[in-house]
Amino acid sequence: MAQIGVSAMKRIEDLLDIGSFVEIGSYISSRNTDFNLSDKDTPKDGVWTGYGTINDSLVYVYSQDSSVLGGSIGEMHAKKIVALYDMAMKMGAPVIGLIDCAGLRLEESFDALDAFGKIYLAQTKASGVIPQIQAVFGLSGGGMAISNGLSDFVFMEQDKAKVFVNSPNAIAGNSQDKNDFSSAKFQSESTALVDFIGTETEIISGIRELISVLPANNEDDMSYIECSDDLNRTTPELIDRISDPALAMNTISDSGYVLEVKKNYAREMFTGFIRLNGNTVGVVANRRVLYDEKGEIAQEFENVLSHQGSDKAAGFIEFCDAFNIPMLTLVDVKGYRATKCSEKRMPKSGAGLTFAYANATVPKVSLIVGDAYGSAALSMNSKSIGADIVFAWESAKMGMMNASEAVKIIYSKEIDSSEDIKSTLDEKIKEYENLQNSVVYAARRGYVDDIITVADTRKRLIAAFEMLFTKKEDRPYKKHGTI
Q: Does the keyword Membrane apply (predicted)?
């Protein structure tokens, strides 16, 4: 009995500021008597609940205890979590769940099932009001995996944690030793459920860092910190780093701060948080190159929109908009990924990305750093769908499509009948680029607000967000959109 709750409580102690945890509901235990459950000791009904602080900011936390009936969710276990949510909603503070749960408690049948449903209801009501973070340290099975999906951010221990709706061994053609669908690797790389993976120590540290950059709720922003970086610092080195937004953001952000989200999923699309003049800013960016820790190229990407990247960006934009976090978009896209799989899903995914940007009312700034062609570029926070400010580098290329492709369509007859096809093609491409694929052409028509130098990027972005700080924008009254 001495070991009951040790891991669950230690995780809380490691997560919160020293001595700040206050437990709620410590005497609650199971009240069910079926299957001789009353003869079993169920201290705290398998979950510690309470509140404390992270860097002096109030948070509510629950930690499941796998030593009590496998951490399974029974009636009173769920009621404790729901009560915690009710208090967090009243106070406008984040809820953090430390998950180690085998799923529903079979001995409690409908009582457990109904109570678990009330957790889903509490999470749904809290969505967009307070941040919800879950960290999976052991099992997260069955309905608990759905609870993971209802959270804003999910951390997962990289070796021991398992997330599954159906047991991996129950899926035809799959097993834990062959292709484990429940592993952290699969959940972070293939499903987009998990935002961060790491050791238990790294996860605890990561949650504390994430809390420091997020607002406490959708009305009160306590994430601002004093900026010690030069607001007028020039950034000429950006030109060599822009192909990997993680490096580019390290150059632009205050003191190089970058927190990338879902970094293992759809790597051709970057999503993450930076700071500009002390304020948290959400970033979405097209990625051409991924560098490893040694500064060597680990992976290269075509600058096109994929359905995975579009879904990833759309979800991140919706979170930022819900919590009034300003959005920065770096644009370098020439079209859509041309594969059978992408063609099946791209129309809906592209619509979701477009809707997320167009529907967002937070300050939205775009910077075109490479290509911006066709409707794919429209979806990346263009002026047409509501960007407040659009900047472009002098080297940027904009238009309906790549000049060489457009010329082959427009001047097909002239090129085919030409005695010197290459010369004619080059001449028409240059003419088309000067006329319609020019960033100056776009700026003259108001689609770009200003053409800026690479070196001035940081200070121009800071100035734009400062100007937009008090932005207020309404949308037509409705319950919600349907995209």
A: no
Residue 105 has pLDDT above 80, yes or no: no
φ, ψ of residue 8 to 5 degrees: the values are -60, -45
**CATH architecture, domain 6-213:** Alpha-Beta Complex (3.90)
Is-same-fold flag (6-213; 236-402+437-467)?
yes
Asked which of 68-72, 278-282, 335-339 is least confident by mean pLDDT, the reply is 68-72
Neighbours of 168 (CB within 10 A): 18
Q: Are 106 and 68 in contact (CB under 8 A)?
A: no
Closest Cα partner for 111 from 28, 26, 34, 27? 34
Nearest to 332 by CA among 288, 363, 292: 288
Q: Which residues in 112-243 belong to E strands, given as ranges?
A: 132-141, 153-157, 162-164, 196-198
Taking the model in full, what pTM does it have?
0.91
Mean pLDDT over 285-289 rounds to 98
H/E element, 258: strand 258-260
Domain ranges of the chain: 6-213, 236-402+437-467
User: What span, in angstroms and rounded, lies between the C-alpha atoms of 406 and 71?
Assistant: 61
Q: How many CA atoms lie within 13 A of 110 on its CB side?
A: 0
Helix crossing, 109-126 with 75-91: angle to 10°? 20
> Hey, what amino acid is at 69?
L
Please state the three-class secondary structure of 310-341 as a single string. Answer: HHHHHHHHHHHHHCCCCEEEEEEECCECCCHH
* Chain mean position to CA 108: 36
CA distances (Å), origin 187, targets 20, 57, 61, 156: 33, 30, 23, 9
DSSP states of 70-125: GG-B-HHHHHHHHHHHHHHHHHT--EEEEEEE-SB-GGGHHHHHHHHHHHHHHHHH
Q: Class of the 236-402+437-467 domain?
A: alpha beta
pLDDT tens track for 158-199: 999 999 988 766 666 666 665 578 899 999 999 999 999 999
